[in-house]
Target: Protein SCO1/2
Amino acid sequence: MKNKSYVWISFIILIFGIWAVPKIIKKFEKSDLVLIGPAPQFELLNQDNKVISNKNYEGKVYVLEFFFANCPTICPIMNQNMLVLQKEFYGNLKFGVASITIDPTNDTPEVLKEHMDELGVKLPFWNMLTGDSKYIFDLSKKFNLYAGQNEDSPGGFEHSGLFALIDKEGNIRCRKDEFGNPILYYDGTSDEGVQMIKEDIQLLLND
Model:
């Protein structure tokens, strides 16, 4: 009788196990992030009038954006969302931010330094970068992150609100959308985009 009960219980466990397997959700891992390719190289001046290049970010996971200090539209939102990332990863010396101005005529190192102080930037490897206007616009094209002058736009410039995620090896990385397609960049103006990049930064830092 005991043997029959044991066989019956084992059968139930087996059936339940087979039913439950499809229900198990695989944990999202670094390998699930798409490797887009090497990020374009750059060399610019930061808020301390120091030359900074992509080489300064080697061995770090970092987020790159294009912005300008006097932007009256999406930049304030992007700034606040970047501060969310600062709060999340503050103290981790393997994380950094590169904010490149598209208005270098006005955004001198001194102006950028003041802008950082106003925002409350404390992250050691957050550089606000400026340089030659043509060089910067060419760089935005290489990243495929739109930026341009437009007298009809508020502030005289327009640009995407996207964040680029770059891994420790200098490669652009991203997750896939619900259809399995790479999203390429993260929406720096939405809570959803910030939550996604926050999760993916952590994956890359854990490597």
In short: The longest helix spans residues 2-20. The chain has a mean pLDDT of 89.
